[in-house]
């Protein structure tokens, strides 16, 4: 599924990314990675794919958390959160992201609501990046009946969050339409109207990050999903589309990225269906590859070492 143009990149950069041992988790199927750097470690959060072989549905009953000091060796911690930890939810551990504020770790996640049709976004909180996490709000922050623009039940998914340098937090999310809203300092209430961002071929999986004065909004593009991105000098836009960052990742219709800097290097974390024989679009595996920036701040296409 990958273009040869990407494979043709044979630079020192490529060589240095050949040691990632992809996929990084092989005893479980893992999807929708999110990651944070805390103290001297990276914490990786993922959904646990558990459908039977050949079952073409997202069956995800819990999230998983791993930590690493080197991006190569990963330690699994006890299950930090399940959709059933939200009394108002009925299942589906879809994508989310953790962020730290004032010593607490807030985890914005997608789940299926128990009484409101469709997917919703909830928030869990913990004193530790490995949890255990518990419901921070007692209800969904965003539900399908608040945002009916696309009239699908899964348009309120895939939250990603950033705290800007001035302390203002923002939540981005969506399927088909990319939404964003300010969050109050308590991180569990919206602080203003929901707004939308026009991005070419936006499918889902937004990831917001800031680096050296640039804001980056990467997202799943078309279907099967590539990862594309836009850049801006402000978290409120305007966003300038910059093109494809990652091609369709092998043997999976979805792709879902996290982008971090750790110990002086940049990383692109994603999933594919690369575990031989049994992997696929619903039995996914998290992979890591190096990410490189150009002098003008744009990002180079990711060279996947996972296929
Ligand atoms: O894993 C379930 C859904 O598939 C996620 O929320 C999307 O980003 C896609 O990866």
Structure keywords:
mainly beta; 4-stranded antiparallel β-sheet; 3% helix; disordered N terminus; binds beta-L-arabinofuranose; Glyco_hydro_43; hydrolase; Glycoside hydrolase family 43 protein; carbohydrate metabolism
Short structural description:
The chain has helices spanning about 5, 10-15, and strands at about 30-40, 40-50, 60-70, 75, 90, 95-100, 105-115, 120-125, 135, 160-165, 170-175, 180-185, 195, 200-210, 215-220, 225-230, 240-245, 260, 265-270, 285-290. It is mainly beta.
**Strand segment tally:** 20
- Return residue spans where pLDDT drops below 50 for at least 5 consecutive residues: 1-18
Structure ligands = beta-L-arabinofuranose
Distance between the termini: 9 Å
What radius of gyration results from the CA coordinates? 18 Å
Keywords: Carbohydrate metabolism, Glycosidase, Hydrolase, Polysaccharide degradation, Signal, Xylan degradation
Protein name: Glycoside hydrolase family 43 protein
GO molecular function, one term: hydrolase activity
Pfam family, one: Glyco_hydro_43
Word description of this protein:
InterPro entries: Glyco_hydro_43, Glyco_hydro_beta-prop_sf, Glycosyl_Hydrlase_43_Enz. Keywords: Carbohydrate metabolism, Glycosidase, Hydrolase, Polysaccharide degradation, Signal, Xylan degradation. Belongs to the glycosyl hydrolase 43 family. The chain is mostly beta strands. 3% of the residues lie in helices and 42% in strands. It is built from two helices and 20 strands. A hairpin with a 2-residue loop joins β18 (258-262) and β19 (265-272). The longest helix has 5 residues, at 12-16. The model is unreliable at 1-18 (pLDDT under 50). It binds beta-L-arabinofuranose. Beta-L-arabinofuranose is lined by residues 31-32, 47, 58, 94-95, 110, 157-158, 204-205, 254, 256.
